[in-house]
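Weekly sync, protein design subgroup
Attendees: M.S., D.O., the rotation student, P.L. (late)

Item 1: inverse folding check
M.S. brought a backbone from last month's batch and wanted to see whether the design step gives back something sensible before we order anything. D.O. pointed out we never logged the input encoding, so this time it goes straight into the notes. Structure tokens as presented (530 positions):
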């Protein structure tokens, strides 16, 4: 079950969340008591917890004390070593999987009722005819309309083992009686490739939102689809991609890099180096590739961009990436919780460490976006600060720099107009999603007839809708300029894009937004140059 959650995420939080993780194989540590029994530091902590448990004047939840202690320890190591409590472990792990088992809908809880946003593509609900606007009232006779039921509880009730039957009772506008749908829970894809389509007759486009278990397989399918369409050039969009599994990034880079060329190497605390090379003939080794990055492209995204740049393959376009070059491995703590601990640094083929400094502490580290914003780096390439002592040269003679992020070959400034940036955050952050959902609910019968072929004709964003969005925002103490000739068309476009996303999915959504995208325009221009 995938739910849409959250209302407008502040910019600093969105940047902090961009610090993606690179996961290696799990460490096969022996976590038995014997391993640490002679450790006086462990004995000291155990003794303190026992004293609190048995002697302290009030009852204390020592589990929470342990959680706080673990978090404080990790905070003093680096920004990317993190603790995952056992109650969060399942959802964190699921987010990096390529699928989940459930009925396959995204939903809002409106009042006391589950309302379907849309049935997920290729999921069980889509296959049996569940539609946006349907209200799921019962599952296997169990009532789901209850104000006291949280979204997590509802999700738990709708999930289950694969192939287990579910009978849903659904209220649909225009029908007096509840509709009955019988289905079996099944695997529902959690797509990491948001969009695949042709930008021009020769240039294909693939947008990857993270590096999950199925990302390379999705990417391969997308690449084959575009090749059949005649693509001789590929635009790989990694903007906003926080990273994920290192193996998936390596496999994607291998599609463009010739055999036996170095993709990256890692170095641990003892100085041991592990090198990874391209191992097979990729489908696009002789094609032209553009990689789109920005200040939120992190971790595994930087592995791909750095490997291509250092091998003189393709062109990196956009703005300096996040700067996360630490490698984590996940380690079980024995009680259902886990820690993702930094165990090495990764380096690009020329020897660059892309990890930015975290010597001033985590708070300063996660505020790096604001420093870039204030020093003008997002709007001018000349404002990017480089260290000449970290200067490297690729085999083809290109000068590149380490010290924090991948600096693109072709710089494209960010539109830093505050009003425009706020509109973008509203689109990506949740406010607009809820507003548009309410709009669609007013006439589901009509909107459910919208298709890829007719959406331009059928979806019209009126001035009344713009004013309605302004009124909606005031309920959250937010305001937007709905009258300016500069922003009115953009707001209209964003509302329409969100309507398309809820009705038709992310592929059409991204395609629609890209029509007004500086980086896409630059890529198309570069693709036509010889």
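Designed sequence read out in the meeting:
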């Amino acid at each position: 079950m995938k739910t849409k959650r959250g209302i407008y995420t502040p910019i600093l939080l969105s940047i902090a969340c961009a610090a993606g993780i690179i996961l290696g194989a799990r460490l096969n540590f022996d976590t038995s008591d014997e391993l640490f029994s002679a450790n006086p530091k462990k004995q000291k902590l155990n003794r303190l917890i026992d004293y609190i448990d048995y002697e302290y004047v009030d009852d204390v939840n020592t589990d929470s004390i342990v959680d706080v202690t673990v978090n404080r320890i990790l905070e003093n190591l680096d920004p990317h070593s993190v603790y995952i409590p056992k109650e969060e472990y399942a959802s964190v792990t699921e987010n990096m999987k390529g699928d989940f088992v459930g009925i396959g809908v995204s939903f809002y809880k409106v009042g006391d009722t589950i309302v379907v946003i849309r049935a997920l593509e290729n999921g069980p609900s889509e296959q049996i005819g569940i539609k946006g606007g349907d209200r799921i009232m019962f599952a296997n006779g169990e009532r789901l309309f209850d104000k006291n039921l949280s979204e997590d509880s509802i999700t738990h009730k709708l999930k289950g083992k694969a192939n287990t039957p579910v009978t849903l009772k659904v209220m649909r506008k225009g029908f007096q009686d509840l509709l009955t749908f019988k289905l079996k829970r099944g695997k529902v894809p959690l797509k990491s490739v948001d969009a695949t389509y042709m930008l021009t007759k020769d240039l294909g486009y693939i947008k990857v939102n993270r590096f999950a278990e199925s990302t390379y397989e999705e990417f391969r399918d997308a690449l084959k689809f575009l090749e059949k369409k005649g693509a001789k050039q590929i635009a790989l969009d990694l903007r906003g991609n926080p990273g994920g599994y290192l193996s998936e990034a390596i496999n994607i880079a291998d599609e463009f890099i010739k055999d036996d060329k170095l993709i990256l190497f890692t170095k641990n605390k003892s100085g041991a180096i592990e090198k990874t090379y391209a191992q097979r003939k990729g489908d696009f080794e002789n094609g032209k590739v553009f990689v789109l990055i920005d200040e939120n492209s992190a971790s595994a995204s930087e592995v791909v961009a750095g490997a291509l740049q250092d091998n003189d393959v393709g062109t990196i376009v956009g703005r300096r990436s996040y700067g996360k070059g630490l490698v984590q491995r996940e380690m079980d703590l024995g009680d259902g919780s886990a820690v993702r601990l930094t165990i090495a640094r990764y380096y690009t083929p020329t020897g660059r460490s892309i990890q930015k400094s975290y010597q001033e502490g985590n708070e300063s580290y996660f505020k790096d976006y604001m420093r870039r914003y204030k020093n003008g780096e997002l709007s001018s390439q000349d404002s990017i600060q480089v260290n000449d002592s970290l200067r490297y040269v690729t085999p083809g003679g290109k000068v590149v720099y380490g010290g924090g992020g991948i600096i693109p070959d072709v710089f494209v400034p960010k539109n830093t107009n505050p009003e425009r940036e706020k509109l973008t955050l509203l689109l990506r952050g949740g406010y607009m999603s809820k507003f548009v959902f309410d709009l669609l609910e007013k006439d589901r019968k009509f909107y459910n007839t919208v298709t890829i072929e007719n959406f331009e004709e059928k979806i019209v964003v009126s001035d009344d809708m713009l004013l309605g969005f302004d009124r909606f925002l005031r309920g959250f103490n937010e305001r937007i300029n709905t009258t300016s000739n500069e922003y009115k068309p953009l707001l209209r476009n964003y509302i329409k894009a969100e309507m398309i996303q809820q009705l038709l999915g992310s592929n059409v959504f991204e395609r629609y937004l890209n029509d007004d995208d500086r980086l896409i325009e630059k890529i198309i221009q570069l693709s036509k140059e010889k």
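Discussion: The radius of gyration is 25 Å. The longest helix spans residues 488-504.
Action: P.L. to compare against the previous round before Friday.
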